[in-house]
User: What shape does this take?
Amino acid sequence: MTNVDEVMKALSDLLGNRIIKTRTLQPEKSYIHVQTGAHKDAVRIMLEQDKEAGISVITGVDLGETIELMYHIRACGTIITIGAEVPKKDAKIASITDIVPGANFHEREVSDLFGVTFEGHPNPKRLVLPEDWPENVFPLRKEVSVANIPSKIINSEVSKGEKQFSSEERLVNIVLGPQHPALIEPEKFSLKVEGEIVREVEPRIGYVHRGIEKAAESRTYLQDIYLVERICGICNACHAACFCQTVEAIMGVIVPPRARYLRTIILELNRIHSHMLLLGHAGLEIGYETLFHYMWRDREPIMDIVEALTGNRVVASFITIGGVRRDWKEEDVPKIKAELAKLKERLSFYKSLFESDSTLKMRTRNVGVLSKQDALKLCVVGPVARGSGVNMDVRRDEPYAAYNEIPFNVITYNEGDSWARLMVRLDEIGESINIIQYALDHLPSGPYRVRVPRTVPAGEAIGRVEAPRGELFYYVKSNGTAYPERVKVRTPTFANIPSFVRIAEGGNIADVPASFVSLDPCFSCTDR
Amino acid sequence: MKWARLKSPWVLHFNSGACNACDIEVVALLTPRYDIERFGILLEPSPRHADILLTTGVVTRQCADRLKRIYEQMPEPKFVVAIGACACSGGVFEGNYNVIGGVDKVIPVDVYIPGCPPKPEAIIDGVVKLLKSIEGGKQSDKR
Amino acid sequence: MSLDLNFVFRVLVFPGFTFILLFTMFCDWVERKIEARMQNRMGPVYTGPAGVLQPLADFIKLLTKEDIVPFNVKNFVFRFAPIVSFSIFVFSFAFLPIDGVNVIFGSNFEGDLILVLTLVSIANFLLFLSGWSSTNPYSAVGATRVLTQLLGYDIPLFVLALAPAFLAGSLSISTIANVQYIPFAFLIPWAFALFIITLQAELEKDPFDVPHAETEIVAGYETEYTGRRLAFLKLAKDVQIVLGAAIAVELFLGGPYGPVFYGSSDVWYTLWFVLKLLVVIVITEYLTCIFARLRIDQVLVVNWKLLLPLAFLSLVAAVGVGLWLNPLGR
Assistant: This one.
């Protein structure tokens, strides 16, 4: 893998004086501000330098007269940011979807929320805001406040603005959602099918869009922890951890070792319960209800452990700025170790089930195949990427919490089908159990939190955490007051959505729920 | 007749903008530890088959029409249970720009179960309270 | 014309309509308990002793719900298909000996096996019509799947049903049941096993659960039904399961005939019938629980490439066994 210095050198050589300036985002991430037209070339140079690079997210920041667009590229195991500014009055910039197809949804979101037009985008439609949202009201611009937005009249007529598909009569339009037993959350997939083969897929998200990024700007940092935790109940500890890490990077606070280990433990417990939830749900999707019931029964001890540690089964509220909120009770530890050992034995039963059961294999083998090239082009993250052979894991690439001190393996499978993605998650449960047991054995003593100053100094930082579904990305900008200037959240499912379209097209309708569930979608994360 | 209604309440679960925490506690009700099938409660896929609507989550602008339509598709007598702090009143998200508020701004609610998320035992308690009030002669709200 | 009270009693109460209805509900309860236990749960517990009255409560509750008929449906078919389907299934019971003789005396005739199987196919077709008339895309897909699956699997079903008919030398169900001193399940076990698998497909149970794939097509052909019609639709499905198991019992397990220990032979025959039926139901439910659901194209592959050839082979083997037992010319 090329390293960061080589990439920076290549950029400065090839772009020359189109670079306006460089600066550093905490902690030690490079930021290169280029002229508005040069951003595409910069991205292309970086992709040439690192073949496995991909775009993480595009952040928009309202700077008053201009909007700053930051293209966060994931390369060489870290994030290198290319920045460009566009004036608000004439917010236009070239789209990069022709070189990086994975930037499709990021650009649509920025145009929805900031009003920036990306020229050359293949499908510039609304993404997260509803169809009946008033035109020219861009919520994340500073001058728009919630009170200005006209309130909604509720009627149950069908809303306008459904995508008009290609007018071929033999295609039947089947709509999955928003209320559908397969999907716990509301979102809509319009499938055009011919017989039983799916020809076109159009996802429509935004049903769970609660405007969290804007809300975060009007709450203090401490209140924001509770807000971002509730972006998604399943991976709530990861959101809290990432936000706290980012704010601590701005403040320059070092978290005590005991807190780092406790954070690791809660993050791994989060990962285990999320994977087990998903594997049970996968059983339900392919009609295997017995697997669903067994898996969720075995998941209950994990919820009990989380409750013993934090006081709540699901939304832990355990991590805070400067450490964690509570300490471990010594007398709980042997019981927890016993439960984990039992779970490990059950894992071998599930593993043999997945490897040998014939009907399960018939439904998941060679179903929903995502090749490695597609995975890289669409910039997917997490077990979806690892199931297609892409070896990426934030815990190893940029260790946070206590991961630099705990040995673990990164699991990859090369087949790229639904079975491979489910197996990646199954094996990761085993790894997580090992990590927790190691952390419990080596828990350092000392304080579990440090006092932090009330106000956060001005600055900006990036934080990344490996959530159960993939890389979770936070960008926080502080202007020295009690309220953050900008909080940008990019959740792993948002990066994985373009792969839904690729996986579903050309397959059977019956495979659609099975392959979607192997991608582990979490739409409340996606919509924020 | 009332006996049959009490002994066989079929539920439909709808998420109108929740963070998933309440939803996974609702799904956990089916699993062996809590097993609400003991009470005759079945999770039904279609609104036309269900008696009780379990909604979770705050109501976003996009989901408001859908929620109303699903409520109208359910046959009488029908009841609505709002699960979680967000469904009751908007929760943490009150005042955000895409959010309308609690469920009772769209459809009439019979039982409110607070919590973030409420434990499955609390949800079962809420459903049992609803059944008791049906027994006591509660009629479904017609709006 | 004098009313034959015995006839009325037999048709309406026992072993006629009421008995079939209550027994269907009992079998529904048995299935739910087995499924729950296999999944490590308890199933219905509080409704009546051990939850036995749960299916009855479900039925009564559905009868009292508001009746909604969507705007666009094909009215006549939508309203009547469930009830007609249910009636045909119940009527087919008339040809099966339950307590030693048929429900209606003397209603058996040569070829009533073919009639019963045809009636079952017609009733299934009506279920398809109920989904087709709903004009809901989910119902349409569910209905098409029902038709594809059932029409496909009817053929091996017929072929396999011919095997015991050949061994018994007759096409009348009551005769086939009567001649089984040793149940045919032991003489031609391969046909019995294949018949059970084909039955799984006819009754739309896992692994052939496709028409009811909740997670893909909501509730399939039942989606738009509420209230009374849903009650009859669900009941039709349950009666279909009991009918299928009853046919299996008659053809392969010797029907109601078994050792009579003392007292009235009617009671003992009914008892044997019920016991054998429960055995078949337990086997099919067990198979349901341990398999995932196959896709529709995989279901068709299993039918045309696997079951049909095996069904023919088993018929040939059954003919061989029959000839061995009863050499031609004797």
About this structure: Chain C has a mean pLDDT of 76. Chain C touches chain B at residues 32, 36, 39-47, 51, 53-54, 56-61, 64-68, 214, 218-219, 222-227, 230 (CB under 8 Å). Chain C has one domain: 70-325.
